Amino acid sequence: MSRENALNVLGTALMPCSYDPLTGWYRDGCCHTDAQDAGSHVICAKMTVEFLNFQMERGNDLITPRPEMRFKGLKPGDRWCVCALRWREAYEDGCAPPVVLECTHARALEYVLMEWLRAASTRDRTGGATNGR
């Protein structure tokens, strides 16, 4: 499936997750993916302190800026395309961040159950990317 025709977990067109911070495997604001995306960065999640700390404890530092990787570091409230298995791990441990279904790639369903995503979905149904908080 091409990026132009990508679908979200609801079966509709994939909406952008965030332009600020600029997210996505392609750094295009969307949770697009391809065969080279070993982490499957397909779940659009709204960062929480709990999730950021949970990831840090596991060696996945999402807080420290890394300009050489076009990564400015995340803060609570930022939306970010996270790895499906990292989100699943957090879900199973009770600290998964909220997700934006309209911005979560359909491929996420290869790793997590739709009922989990629905249970963790944000109340904001506007979809679309954020431009800061």
Report what the structure shows.
- The protein is of the alpha+beta class.
- Helix content is 18%, strand content 12%.
- It is built from 3 helices and 4 strands; from the N terminus they run ββαβααβ.
- It has helices spanning 49-57, 84-92, 114-119, and strands at residues 18-20, 41-46, 79-83, 130-131.
- It has a two-stranded parallel sheet with strand order 1-4.
- It is globular and about 35 Å long.
- It starts with 17 loop residues before the first strand and ends with a strand.
- The relative contact order is 0.25.
- The mean pLDDT is 91.
Low-pLDDT stretches are: none
- The secondary-structure class comes to alpha+beta
- Count all strands and give the number: 4
**What portion of residues belong to β-strands?**
5-15%
* Rg (CA only): 13 Å
Spatial arrangement of strands, main beta sheet: 1-4
Global geometry = globular
Give average pLDDT, whole number. Answer: 91
How do the SSEs run, as a string of H and E? EEHEHHE
Tally of individual helices? 3
Report the end-to-end length measured between terminal Cα atoms: 31 Å
Largest sheet: 2 strands, parallel
Fraction in helix: 10-25%
Brief overview:
The protein has 133 residues and is an alpha+beta fold. The protein contains three helices and four strands. It has a two-stranded parallel ribbon with strand order 1-4. Strands 2-3 form a two-stranded antiparallel ribbon.
